[in-house]
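Appendix B, record 7
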Amino acid sequence: MTELEQQLLSAFDSLQKQHEKQHNDFVTSYNGLVQMFETTSKENNELRQQVSNLSRQVESLSAHLQQLEKRYSKNNR
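Structure tokens (predicted):
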């Protein structure tokens, strides 16, 4: 094997190792993003449910307050 062939083979090996590292880094990053997305989606669903529950509570309290206001108005006439 000539010196040029050895240099080319060495350069190719180096590029292949660099590519493998970049690919592995990409896969690791991608898997991390998938995990973050799944966690965020789950948390968003939980928060959406909590907001829905709070909205129902506010509506109930508002209706109750309106009833109290009507009673108060009738008693103060």
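Remarks on this record: The radius of gyration is 33 Å. Helices lie at 3-75.
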